[in-house]
């Protein structure tokens, strides 16, 4: 139904996660050095939980700013009379949130989140920091219902940075630019994307949670044309503007 790329294990290669139909598990594919993918659904810990849901929008993002990408899934059945045909299945369903444990496994934390207690017939899911407070929020579209705006209330307990990229010779939105952030021994990677999930468009700003790190040792942007811009010893909890071929500067 939905699909998203992200580097959930911070090895520099974009992995793939896919939402699927009810009685099929959602899937986590691990990228091995850009040569092949392996199905890590079982070992990731998401198989048993997602088997009972029909998934649509799906997104890898760091909701708690700990430096590891988590997974959000928007759920809802396709048939409004499914409960008549299958008594154990419902049309509205709860959405799912999985926390990345940092070792290739994910933990289901939907019961720890107030915004995920209601059952809806959800479809799209778009991610972005709509209130500019340093953590990523979620906008969910629902079938024949009002959308839900899920405001993140815990992410900014950890430190973060955001980067707005502007291409010059590359496309202006910087789509496809690859960003590396280094804090101590922890390295993260992100590729600037626009659409994804399911019929959704995300915040174009690259967002990195960095846990308790007190500075960014290295911020590196590799543009589509091969040009590289770098910034070192940058402060955390700041937004930066990166114009291709220019110095990386704080926005505020």
From TrEMBL:
<keyword id="KW-0732">Signal</keyword>
<dbReference type="InterPro" id="IPR028994">
    <property type="entry name" value="Integrin_alpha_N"/>
</dbReference>
<protein>
    <submittedName>
        <fullName>Cartilage acidic protein 1</fullName>
    </submittedName>
</protein>
<dbReference type="InterPro" id="IPR013517">
    <property type="entry name" value="FG-GAP"/>
</dbReference>
<dbReference type="InterPro" id="IPR011519">
    <property type="entry name" value="UnbV_ASPIC"/>
</dbReference>
<dbReference type="InterPro" id="IPR027039">
    <property type="entry name" value="Crtac1"/>
</dbReference>
<feature type="domain" description="ASPIC/UnbV">
    <location>
        <begin position="174"/>
        <end position="239"/>
    </location>
</feature>
<dbReference type="Pfam" id="PF13517">
    <property type="entry name" value="FG-GAP_3"/>
</dbReference>
<dbReference type="Pfam" id="PF07593">
    <property type="entry name" value="UnbV_ASPIC"/>
</dbReference>
């Amino acid at each position: 139904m939905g699909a998203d790329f992200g580097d959930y294990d911070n090895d520099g290669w974009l992995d793939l996660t896919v939402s699927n139909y009810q009685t099929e598990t959602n899937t986590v594919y691990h990228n091995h050095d850009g040569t092949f993918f392996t199905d890590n659904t079982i070992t990731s810990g998401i198989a048993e939980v997602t088997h009972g849901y029909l998934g649509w929008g799906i997104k890898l993002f760091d909701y708690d700013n700990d430096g590891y990408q988590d997974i959000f899934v928007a759920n809802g059945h396709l048939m409004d009379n499914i409960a008549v045909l299958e008594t154990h299945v419902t049309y509205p369903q709860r959405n799912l949130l999985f926390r990345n444990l940092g070792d290739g496994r994910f933990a289901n934390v939907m019961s720890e989140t107030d915004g995920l207690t209601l059952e809806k017939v959800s479809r799209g899911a778009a991610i972005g920091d709509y209130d500019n407070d340093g953590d990523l929020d979620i906008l969910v579209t629902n079938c024949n219902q009002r959308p839900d705006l899920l405001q993140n209330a815990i992410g900014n307990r950890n430190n973060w940075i955001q980067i707005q990229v502007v291409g010059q010779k590359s496309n202006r939105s910087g789509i496809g630019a690859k960003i590396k952030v280094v804090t101590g021994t922890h390295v993260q990677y992100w590729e600037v994307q626009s659409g994804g999930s399911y019929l959704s468009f995300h915040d174009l700003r690259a967002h990195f949670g960095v846990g308790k790190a007190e500075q960014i040792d290295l911020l590196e942007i590799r543009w589509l044309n091969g040009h590289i811009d770098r910034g070192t010893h940058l402060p955390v909890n700041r937004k930066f503007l990166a114009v291709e071929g220019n110095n990386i500067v704080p926005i505020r």
